[in-house]
């Protein structure tokens, strides 16, 4: 339980750094920093879900997509959220492994929505953890 609480706190801190940058005026430096903050926020976000599933539901999962599918099965994520987090996973993987300027611009356009999605889900998991 303590691990989940600490992981959730770390995720919320990471998400605050992402929130700080999403409203900054566009520049390639802001874009690149936003992408980097998105990547590390995503990494801690999916691990919060992984820990929640293991601790609260007794479900083991090893990858972001498997965790998101399991989270949908147990009702943590709606169908719409599941579709979005699976798309977000693809964008996160693409952003890490691509130098394609056009792809990076497209991902950057999604960062605000991704931040809002991760923020809402994390808050819901934190609340659910308190009540469980």
From TrEMBL:
Entry keyword 4Fe-4S: no
Keyword annotations from UniProtKB, A to Z: Transferase
Superkingdom of origin: Archaea
Pfam families documented for this protein: NTase_sub_bind
Gene3D superfamilies: Nucleotidyltransferases domain 2 (1.20.120.330)
One GO MF term attached to the UniProt entry: transferase activity
NCBIfam families attached to this UniProt entry: HI0074 (TIGR01987)
Name under which the protein is recorded: Nucleotidyltransferase
Organism: Methanosarcina spelaei
């Amino acid at each position: 339980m303590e691990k989940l609480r600490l992981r959730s706190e770390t995720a919320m801190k990471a998400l605050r750094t992402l929130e700080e940058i999403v409203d900054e005026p566009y520049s390639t430096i802001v874009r690149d920093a936003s992408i980097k903050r998105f990547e590390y926020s995503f990494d801690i976000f999916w691990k919060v879900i992984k820990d929640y599933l293991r601790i609260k539901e007794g479900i083991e999962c090893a990858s972001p997509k498997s965790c998101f599918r399991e989270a949908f099965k147990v009702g943590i994520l709606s169908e719409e959220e599941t579709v979005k987090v699976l798309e977000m996973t693809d964008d996160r993987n693409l952003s890490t492994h691509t130098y394609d300027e056009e792809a990076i611009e497209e991902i950057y356009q999604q960062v605000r929505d991704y931040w809002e999605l991760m923020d809402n889900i994390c808050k819901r998991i934190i609340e659910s953890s308190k009540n469980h």
